[in-house]
Write a structure and sequence with these properties.
By secondary structure, the protein is of the alpha/beta class. It has one domain: 3-Layer(aba) Sandwich (Protocatechuate 4,5-dioxygenase, Chain B). Helices cover 35% and strands 20% of the residues. The chain has a 7-stranded mixed sheet, sandwiched between helices. Strand 9 and strand 10 form a beta hairpin. The longest helix has 16 residues, at 160-175. The termini are far apart.
Length: 313
């Protein structure tokens, strides 16, 4: 069966994409940001996921005030980079996984989550910046990617609890898929930031640090944060953090923190990043999990796995 083995949570600051595309990654301002992803790029290269489910929010590129799906699912074979006003980013076209995406759609909708199925969609920096941070500048993205846009732009966004429960439904859907696939789920956006008004530029390191800690040890507590607390404590755009709860809901209750990175400021945003893995299964559970995929994995070379908990500041 397919398995979600890890989550990657990361901010999707558009200026990061511009710094990559314009060759500014080694400039003094940007170098510490990109150095913070050295470990992450090696980790994911060693892991070699087959599919990424990438949770993000569209910024008016695929949707507008005319159509605002709360949760959408990209089921197309390809998703081109969006033109956000200065031309599309020079990044590869995203290759989807229509079979798995369609299976997820059916499973999750029958689980009473009303996804909007999207068969044609351009993807903006909310999706492409996290891929660039994790994979650099390849000619093609090294795995299939299923976009999952979430409305966190127009009130009301989904609650943290609804997002967390969607993550559980996604896991159930993935694990009922017949093919042996290693899946990583990305939760993107955040952390604390506000783009407009008298509090523009707001960053709350304490809120962000607590959120990262609780994401590991007590995600259920995060599901109870009301909308107004995100706005009051961490800025109007911090509501994007509910998307991290989708990724967390798709993992086990107990997880291993592999890596954490936090940097301020990144443009006018607190950049947060954390990698979580499910704990290794033991005994009969491990044998059962391996049995379904042993045959199709047999031809693959063993993969080095990053070990231990690491942090960068």
């Amino acid at each position: 069966m397919a398995r979600i083995v890890a989550s990657v949570n990361v901010s999707h600051v558009p200026a990061i994409g511009a710094a990559i595309d314009l060759g500014k990654t080694q400039q003094p301002y940007w170098a510490p940001v990109f150095k913070g992803f050295d470990f992450s790029r090696k980790w994911i290269a060693d892991l070699k996921p087959d599919v990424i489910i990438l949770v993000y929010n569209d910024h008016g590129s695929a949707f507008s005030l005319e159509i605002i799906p709360t949760f959408a699912l990209g089921c197309a074979a390809e998703f081109p980079p969006a033109d956000e006003g200065w031309g599309p980013r020079p990044v590869p076209v995203v290759k989807g996984h229509p079979e798995l995406a369609s299976h997820i759609g059916q499973s999750v909708i029958l689980d009473e989550f009303d996804l909007t199925i999207v068969n044609k969609m351009d993807v903006d920096h909310g999706l492409t910046v996290p891929l660039s941070l994790m994979f650099g500048q390849p000619r093609e993205w090294p795995c299939r990617i299923i976009p999952l846009p979430v409305n966190v732009v127009q009130y009301p966004p989904p609650t943290g609890n609804r997002c967390f429960q969607l993550g559980k439904a996604l896991r159930k859907a993935v694990e009922s898929y017949h093919e042996d696939l290693r899946v990583v789920i990305f939760g993107t956006g955040g952390m604390s930031h506000q783009l407009q008004g008298p509090r523009a530029g707001l960053i709350n390191r304490s809120f962000d640090s607590n959120f990262l800690d609780k994401l590991v040890t007590d995600p259920v507590a995060l599901t109870r944060i009301p909308f107004l607390e995100y706005v009051r404590e961490a800025g109007s755009e911090a509501i994007e953090l509910v998307m991290w709860l989708i990724a967390r809901g798709a993992l086990d209750a107990k997880v291993r923190e592999v890596y954490r990175f936090y940097h301020v400021p990144t443009s006018n945003t607190a950049l947060g990043h954390i990698i979580l893995e499910n704990l290794p299964k033991s005994g009969g559970a491990a044998r059962k999990a391996r049995a379904g995929g042993a045959k199709s994995r047999a031809a693959r070379a063993p993969k080095a796995r990053a070990a231990g908990k690491r942090r960068a500041a």
